[in-house]
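F.,

This is the one I mentioned.
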């Protein structure tokens, strides 16, 4: 079972309680909840439903009202606590902490669901209310409503149970107190009151040490002999009680034999009641989450009988439960509705979001190691973003790493957003190969589809080894076997290309085999073991030339074409060939299936050598795309039904050198001799994406650059009419040569279509990292990263699409690929069809506090606090989770700062700098700066690594002590300034240190004293941003000089904010966040140094914050959207580097992302927000509680409103939860919004057709989706 986000709605207030009103008025696991109730801290009560608008599930507000406190002489709620709902959905009660309970009778709403107009009733309890709940009614009294409350009388110093009675038809009469039963003086304070649906008019009272069973009959009769059962004490606490945090009611179970055989008269407190259900054979199950993290199962029977069992975890480490515990599902019934297992959802502030599966011991016999005999077993699995505190954060390599420093166990959590990728199986291990190897490494691979005896098509992979080739076909069960007929066709010669080209005689599969000296076709029969049906030659390479590339494509009409590139051999002189008038390369296209046969051929000469070649079937035409060493891209078209054949140029050639010169990679780009310059910026692969509205031609280069251009939708239809619809775009995708792969849609019964066809609008891009490219809804090229490819064989140099089995839900599907690495490993991998979050947890000893990543090895350096009073530094392998090196610090010393420092001298020195604070009697007395070097571990009996300055993350390493210095205060922050200096903040002083390589010492250059202690450091060139405990941010400048170095204070803020972190956002801007969650951005003035920083924007998150980072948690490819400003763009390519986002982490585990937008986009979203706020009540665009979030984002007791900030919640609702008609209603309600949207769309050329309102709504939706893709989340 998995959990997936479905929908959400903004509520700009603190939510106290959320309850569901089930369909049909029955609170059962089988009844789907069709209504919900929300109670906020400000006293607003909202009633709504969940609706499906045809592909979009959303929360719909039906009505709202305000809860009032009666008898206090003032309006408005005071100290509301929770919301409880009647089991039959007849009433709901808002419980206050003191004296008052307000009951809202739900009126029948017919098909629209319940309503809040049934009337209001009030209860004066006369004391503090510990808890209250409705009781399940008896079957014969469906109109009677019973409510029981545990009330603490402050005057009498006693606690009693109050029973109130009302009727569903008496909406205007307050509930009547019908019984009051004082609790025994030896009973602890009540904590929870739990209704028991299986036992009408019964309840379970949980105190600070006991579980007590009671009933309405006992309260009415005044029977104080309650059945009490002690709860287990806290483990290792010396006998102290454990308090329940959360409670949920599950299903029923058979009464244990020990309880069934027990004589009720022998019980110490027989439960008296005239009800016939007292003799029910079923017991109610209640699960209780304790403060210690333990999970209890309480079984209650009306005999009376209470059993309390501690649920034994079967997986380590122990789950930290929170204050939310909900039942999700029940296992199979075993008798009379009883279930054998239960599935719960556990959550809460500062705890885990997890699915907990609980089963009887018999159902978990294979997990019985370490369990308590006879106790239920629990298996927990984290399913959502962890809400444990995010103490530190790192944004690198498309992942977000956070540390959780809570007790007793901590972890490093890795979050990657994108398409999840995982390894399915390895076909060839790769490596050095040799005579003893099972299979030599793979050097090249091709994919084709061959017909099976059943008439379907099966995927077949041809793997090129050193001097041999192997053909393997995949069976329906996922296993691979050798295809003997095809293997014999390609085994003896060096392959250049192999692919399927339609059908031959008698239904045989026609295969194109391209060798260096010739191109042949072979008809392969349906039997994999039989001999070749027919083989004939298509083309032969002339003297002093060879065939270097091949491709093929089959149209929907069954017309197949083979394309080969003929170029001079490696010994020939290309300059001499050019002087003689001979072409650098020749493309030849030959029809191999369909009308015309092999006699129909065409050719075209090229001015540059070909580096890659592909052919694509687009309708009834074939597009031939060739990449050259120049570099450049040439596109030709073949009409499938034309005779004679012709390679018609499409006018879409991409001269890339002009585009690449701004990147500083134009050297030697005019070299056409590929063998002489194998590492030149040549085109490594090409691909074409097509959609009904627009198509794109993609080109990947060997140096990691990615280029693309758009062409009209009807591009292949006519010759010479294909000027590019937009200017070509170039982005830096990585450092490895880029390769593309098609994406095969999922198929059923493992049968490929005939002919097989990839998804024309999607492709997989491999540029060191994996991306999924697709043509989006707005006819724009979108690229989403893949998460988890670092655990695949690296580097990936070839990717082939494989067929995947279709599933009932597209969200659960995956694409399959065959990936070949540079070491010759061939493996099957899968990529999820839907982009989502991927979470991974690395357990660390102790409580991790600080984290950095080594830039060369990728090792994670984690500083942890180890109870009771020590600290350690660990080098953690992010792939395997193993600790490669570890050092400990002095007792009573904690790590406050951690940074890496790379110094370039005669060799590269890699240092890890740690700032500590020494404590004595809970007070910081001083600190140290300790520097370690990160080196590979020495291995006896083995050769030293080839690169001693780069430790191998897969092997061992060591943290070697280098130097330390005692400081006058706790070292709160450390940052490196280039490769020469190190900045250290200790107390209220900042110092700049320098490494003396000759003496192997760190010397202090200069220092500067500030007014208040420093909390963080960030360096940009020689400028330093120091977070302050009182002055928000202080800016310092370091000036090195021969006569002496200087560190001076330049600017500071003039408002009192205790900054938790501060960072340079862009030239002239510095951002920060205080510990209460106030995010601010300030401008750096151009005036003298005594000028204060200029306030630019600020808003309050409403939660305590820990760290601020400037960057993005998602790898992005593509130009900067028009709604984002450029962030100090280089003159080379100002449109390819989007500005970074502000990423803020909080103690509750939440991650906030803030993106800079243009003035036009800000005005557009502001008008959109105002239009949605003024929509009528009940409209899906209106917030649930009709608030705009301004008060929720205000700061401090003075409620300073947010400045220059737009809350993106309402915009997300507009783009993701409204239909086109509802979007049009919002836009039509604001003429200013319509006018601005049309003006912006006209400037972008995206106005489109249709009415003005529809065009404006379409453009606004595209803007919001663009911002959502740009942000970190």
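My design for it:
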């Amino acid at each position: 079972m998995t959990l997936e986000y479905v929908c959400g709605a903004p509520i700009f207030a603190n939510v106290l309680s959320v309850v569901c009103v089930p369909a049909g008025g029955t609170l059962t696991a089988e009844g789907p909840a069709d209504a919900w109730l929300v109670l906020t801290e400000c006293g607003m009560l909202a009633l709504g439903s969940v609706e499906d608008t045809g592909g979009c599930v959303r929360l719909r507000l039906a009505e709202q009202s305000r809860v009032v406190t009666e008898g206090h002489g003032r309006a408005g709620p005071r100290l509301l606590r929770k919301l409880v709902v009647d089991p039959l959905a007849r009433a709901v009660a808002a419980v206050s902490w003191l004296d008052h309970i307000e009951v809202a009778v739900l009126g029948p709403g017919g098909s629209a669901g319940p309503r809040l107009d049934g009337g209001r009733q009030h209860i004066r309890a006369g004391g503090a209310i510990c808890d209250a709940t409705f009781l399940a009614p008896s079957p014969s009294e469906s109109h009677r409503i019973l409510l029981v409350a545990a009330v603490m009388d402050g005057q009498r110093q006693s606690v009693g149970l109050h029973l109130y009675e009302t009727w569903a038809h008496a909406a205007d009469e307050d509930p009547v107190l019908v019984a009051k039963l004082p609790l025994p003086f030896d009973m602890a304070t009540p904590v929870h009151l739990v209704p028991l649906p299986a036992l009408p008019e019964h309840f379970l009272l949980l105190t600070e040490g006991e579980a007590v069973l009671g009933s309405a009959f006992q309260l009415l009769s005044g029977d104080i002999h309650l059945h009490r059962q002690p709860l287990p004490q806290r483990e290792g606490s010396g006998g102290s009680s454990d308090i329940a945090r959360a409670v949920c009611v599950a299903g029923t179970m058979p009464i244990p034999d020990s309880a069934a055989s027990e004589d009720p008269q022998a019980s110490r407190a027989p439960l008296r009641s005239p009800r016939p259900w007292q003799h029910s054979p079923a017991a109610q199950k209640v699960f209780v989450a304790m403060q210690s993290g333990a999970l209890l199962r309480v079984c209650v029977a009306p005999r009376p009988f209470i059993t309390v069992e501690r649920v034994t975890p079967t997986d380590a480490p122990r789950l930290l439960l929170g204050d939310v515990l909900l039942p999700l599902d029940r296992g199979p019934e075993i008798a009379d509705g009883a279930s054998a297992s239960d599935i719960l959802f556990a959550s809460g502030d500062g705890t885990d979001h997890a699915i907990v599966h609980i089963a009887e011991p018999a159902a978990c016999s294979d997990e019985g190691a370490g369990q308590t005999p006879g106790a239920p077993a629990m298996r927990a699995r984290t399913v959502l973003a962890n809400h444990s505190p995010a103490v530190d954060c790192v944004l690198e390599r498309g992942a977000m790493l956070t540390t959780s420093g809570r007790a007793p166990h901590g972890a490093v959590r890795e979050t990657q957003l994108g398409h999840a990728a995982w390894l399915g199986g390895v076909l060839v291990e790769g490596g050095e190969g040799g005579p003893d190897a099972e299979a030599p490494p793979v050097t090249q691979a091709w994919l084709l589809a061959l017909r099976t005896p059943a008439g379907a098509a099966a995927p077949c992979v041809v793997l090129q080894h050193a001097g041999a080739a192997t053909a393997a076909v995949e069976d329906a069960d996922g296993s691979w076997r050798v295809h003997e007929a095809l293997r014999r066709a390609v085994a003896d010669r060096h392959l250049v290309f192999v692919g399927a080209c339609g059908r031959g005689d008698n239904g045989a599969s026609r295969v194109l085999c391209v060798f260096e000296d010739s191109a042949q076709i072979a008809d392969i029969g349906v039997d994999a073991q039989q001999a070749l049906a027919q083989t004939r030659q298509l083309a032969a390479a002339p003297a002093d030339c060879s065939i270097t590339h091949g491709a093929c494509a089959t149209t929907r009409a069954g017309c197949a074409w083979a394309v080969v590139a003929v170029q001079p051999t490696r010994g020939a002189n290309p300059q001499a060939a050019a002087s003689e008038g001979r072409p650098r390369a020749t493309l030849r296209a030959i029809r191999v299936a369909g009308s015309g046969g092999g006699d129909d051929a065409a050719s075209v000469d090229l001015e540059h050598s070909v580096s890659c070649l592909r052919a694509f079937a687009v309708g009834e035409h074939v597009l031939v795309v060739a990449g050259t060493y120049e570099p450049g891209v040439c596109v030709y078209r073949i009409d499938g039904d034309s005779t004679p054949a012709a390679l018609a140029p499409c006018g879409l050639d991409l001269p890339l050198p002009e585009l690449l010169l701004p990147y500083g990679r134009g050297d030697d780009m005019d070299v056409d001799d590929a063998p002489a310059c194998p590492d030149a910026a040549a085109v490594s692969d090409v691909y074409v994406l097509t959609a009904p509205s627009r198509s794109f031609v993609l080109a990947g280069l060997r140096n990691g650059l990615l280029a693309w251009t758009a062409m009209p939708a009807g591009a292949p239809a006519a010759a010479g009419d294909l000027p590019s619809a937009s200017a070509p775009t170039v982005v830096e995708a990585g450092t490895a040569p880029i390769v593309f792969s098609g994406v095969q849609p999922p198929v059923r019964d493992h049968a490929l279509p005939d002919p097989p066809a990839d998804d024309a609008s999607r492709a997989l891009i491999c540029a060191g990292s994996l991306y999924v490219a697709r043509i989006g809804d707005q006819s724009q090229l979108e690229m989403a990263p893949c998460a988890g490819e670092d655990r695949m064989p690296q580097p990936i140099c070839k990717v082939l699409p494989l067929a995947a089995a279709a599933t009932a839900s597209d969200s659960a599907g995956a694409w399959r690929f065959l990936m070949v690495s540079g070491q010759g490993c061939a493996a099957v991998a899968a990529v999820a069809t839907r982009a989502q979050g991927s979470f991974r947890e690395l357990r660390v000893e102790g409580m991790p506090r600080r984290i950095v990543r080594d830039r060369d090895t990728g090792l994670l350096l984690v500083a942890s606090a180890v109870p009771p009073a020590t600290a350690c530094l660990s080098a953690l392998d992010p792939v395997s989770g193993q600790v490669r090196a570890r050092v400990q610090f002095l007792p009573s010393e904690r790590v406050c700062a951690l940074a890496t420092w790379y110094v370039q001298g005669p060799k590269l020195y890699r240092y890890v700098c740690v700032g500590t604070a020494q404590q004595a009697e809970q007070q910081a007395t001083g600190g140290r700066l300790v520097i370690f070097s990160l080196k590979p571990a020495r291995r006896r009996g083995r050769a030293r690594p080839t690169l001693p300055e780069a430790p191998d993350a897969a092997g061992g390493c060591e943290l070697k002590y280098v130097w330390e210095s005692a400081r006058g205060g706790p070292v709160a922050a450390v940052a490196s300034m280039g490769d020469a200096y190190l900045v250290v903040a200790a107390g209220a002083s900042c110092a700049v240190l320098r490494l003396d390589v000759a003496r192997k010492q760190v010397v202090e250059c200069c220092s500067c004293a500030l007014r208040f202690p420093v909390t963080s450091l960030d360096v940009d060139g020689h400028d330093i941003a120091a977070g302050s405990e009182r002055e928000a941010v202080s800016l310092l400048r370091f000036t090195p000089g021969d006569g002496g170095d200087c560190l001076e204070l330049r600017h500071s803020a003039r408002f009192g904010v205790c900054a938790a972190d501060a960072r340079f956002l862009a030239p002239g801007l510095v951002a920060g966040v205080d510990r209460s969650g106030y995010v601010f951005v300030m401008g750096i003035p151009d005036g003298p140094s005594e000028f204060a920083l200029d306030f630019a924007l600020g808003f309050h998150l409403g939660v305590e914050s820990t760290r601020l980072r400037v960057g993005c948690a998602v790898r992005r490819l593509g130009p900067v959207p028009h709604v984002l400003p450029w962030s100090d763009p280089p003159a080379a390519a100002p449109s390819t580097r989007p500005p970074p986002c502000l990423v803020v982490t909080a103690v509750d585990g939440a991650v906030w992302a803030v993106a800079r937008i243009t003035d036009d986009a800000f005005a557009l979203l502001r008008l959109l927000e105002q239009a949605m706020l003024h929509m009528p009540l009940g409209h899906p665009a209106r917030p649930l509680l009709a608030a705009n979030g301004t008060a929720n984002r205000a700061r401090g007791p003075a409620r300073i409103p947010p400045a220059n900030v737009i809350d993106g919640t309402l915009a997300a609702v507009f783009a993701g939860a409204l239909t086109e008609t509802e979007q049009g209603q919002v836009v039509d309600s604001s003429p200013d919004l319509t006018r601005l949207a049309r003006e912006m769309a006209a400037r972008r050329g995206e106005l489109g057709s249709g009415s003005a309102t529809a065009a404006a709504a379409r453009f606004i939706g595209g803007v919001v989706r663009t911002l959502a893709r740009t942000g970190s989340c």
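The longest strand covers residues 410-428.

Talk soon.
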